[in-house]
Amino acid sequence: MNIAGLVAVSGKPGLYKLVGQNKSGFILESLDEQKTKLVVNMSTSKLASLEDITIYSDDDDIRLKDVFETIKAYQGSIPEAKEDPKVLRAFFTEIVPNHDTEKVYNSDIKKIINWFSIIKTTPLFDEVSEEAKEQELTQEEVAVAEEVVEKKPKAAKKPAAKKATAKND
């Protein structure tokens, strides 16, 4: 899943894709069917990049992208964002069992599920992120290097070369 360039705008519902930037702010395109373009003033609106959002947990914070990947791999039915808060909390506890129940509010869970339902309808849902591509390349490079090392014949020891000495005649 590639969420690079996706942002949430304070006071605006839904998610937006960052298209560009001008002097006064950012140019965004909505991820819904209308694909409306919007210019957001940097001084009056707050943008939150989905890549930078984390969820509080008992250990380290969990990246939103990892939560989305877990939901994507989930085998059961995913509740709608309008479900009862107890149902949403039970679902989220199943998905992210170590989340901090005091710091992660029901509204946060609702927002995450709503964002996931928006993203799953876009081509970005099945697109591989740059980070995952780099990781795949690194794994492939390691595998190739291991093959090369295994196939490389061990060099036979060559006898030490005799030092030439100059004779004074």
From TrEMBL:
Gene3D superfamilies: 1.10.10.1650, 2.30.30.730. Residues 149-169 are annotated as: Disordered. Residues 6-50 form the DUF5606 domain. Residues 53-119 form the DUF6852 domain. Residues 154-169 have a biased composition (Basic residues). It comes from the Bacteria. InterPro entries: BVU_3817-like_C_sf, BVU_3817_N_sf, DUF5606, DUF6852. This is Uncharacterized protein.
